[in-house]
């Protein structure tokens, strides 16, 4: 599916396609919307906490990782659904692994936030 675009036009088109992916995900994926509603306020809180810059970065990155894993999960689900709507054990496995990605990102964020806040309020 090469377009032949090069240089600045290729970069601008990549931004356009990324924006289209973002808007499509917001419109169709409830989990993504919920995670945005969680991560955006927590990101604001992270920046306002009296922590060293590295810890603030870790807090923010842990939230970004949740969003990234949800996008990967949604992409996996879209591809599986595109292939077939019939049940197949490999399709289930792929979707379950995508779901695990999101869960692990949440566990990671919970651990990082717990450690940073624990150190802050010792």
List its salient traits.
122 residues, mainly alpha, Helix Hairpins, 85% helix, 0% strand
Folded structure, characterized:
The protein is an all-alpha fold and 122 residues long. It has a single domain, classed as Helix Hairpins, CATH 1.10.287. It contains four helices and no strands. α2 (30-48) packs antiparallel against α3 (53-83) and α3 packs antiparallel against α4 (89-120). The longest helix has 32 residues, at 89-120. The mean pLDDT is 95.
Total of helices: 4
How many beta strands in the DSSP annotation? 0
| CATH-assigned fold name | Helix Hairpins
Taking all residues together, what is the mean pLDDT? Answer: 95
CATH class: Mainly Alpha
Query: What can be said about the biggest beta sheet?
Result: none
Overall structural domain count: 1
Helix content: over 70%
- Class by alpha and beta content: mainly alpha
Shape: globular
